[in-house]
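Hi V.,

You were right to ask for the full record rather than a summary. Here it is.
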Amino acid sequence: MEMPTSPLIDRSVPALAQGYTWLPGLLRERPDDVARSRVMGKPTLLVRGPEAVRFFYDEDNVRRGGALPGPVLSTLFGHDAVHTLDGAAHHARKELFLPLLHPDRIAGLVEHVTAVWDEAVREWSGAEQVVLFDAASVVLTRGVCRWAGVPLDEGAAVAERLARDLVSMIDGFATAGPRHWRARIARSRQEQRFARLVEDVRSGRAAAPEGSVLAAVCEHRDAGGESLHPHTAAVELLNVIRPTVAVCWFVAYTAHALHLQPNQRERLRGGDTAYTAAFVHEVRRFYPFAPFLGGLAVRDLSWRGAQVPAGGMVLLDVFGQNHDEKLWGDPYVFRPERFLEHAVEPDELIPQGGGEPRTGHRCPGEGLTIGLLEALAFRLADLDCTVPDQDLRISLRRIPARVRSGFAVRDVRVPSERTPTLA
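Predicted structure:
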């Protein structure tokens, strides 16, 4: 069926103003989950659904190189990052990240992060109030740096500054205001610091633990057989550490879900691994993270009767797909059991994108996110604390969305300090 032609209206401003609801709103009345528009001056194809995911991640249809706007590269991903590459160059650079998919590497990261978390809980017990979003960002920074071989031996303040910068990079990529400029400054500062670290390792002034992410980045060679430029190496090192710290968004969302549905606590405390996995998938599906993903048409494309010329944009509706009634039935109800009732295909649940992680653009850190959340969800369910009155709203107009208060807790008690529960 030929779709109506209305590509002349540029919808860039509504996209910024409406946030996560913009693309689902455009597709709401489209039975085929496809529409045409214009974004950033380009004719644009808007798509959603598992088949559209496969269409979007087929490199014969859509390329990522040149698709990411400069402001996003200057804040979130970094220039020359793996996200900007296609074909052989992308596959060669992706080899740097593939070892992170191994279960042993995931388990190692989880072990480091949970050890830091358990240390932090003892510190929180002496604090008047702890904001979980902020505290989790520092825990994740410390844990992932230990795991990656990145030194943080100058004291707690260094980890806290790095955590703030990493959060700023994520928090400011989709706005033109002060958050965006903080993100640019943060990325520039940390790219310079990490580039110096790479140079120090290569010159022998610093040591990278054998088998560490730091060592891999310093030693990696791209498709042409050349070592990464120190700046590019710094970008890719940050592209391991930054997404791990982004899990603090999901930590706050997990606390939010447990607060609104306290019955979930007992099920998680029971140690049922299948239910814990289902709970984590539901957090990732239900709460807003990536609104959509974009690429450029490799050639003149047609999808379900809608066309876009070569060089036009293709946007994949991530948030809308994760809340599509056709896929999830009751998408705006938080219900982990849905993931126990039937198997979910990889191209159905796409909070961190879709496709194939080993050969395509699907985030290789997705397994790390899931492993971390499974361990931290159990610990959050077991956290003995008081939740004071606060603003727990989550605005879908803000990209990236987050719990407005960051989720504050008080009166944290470590397990040994708890009063035994009488039978």
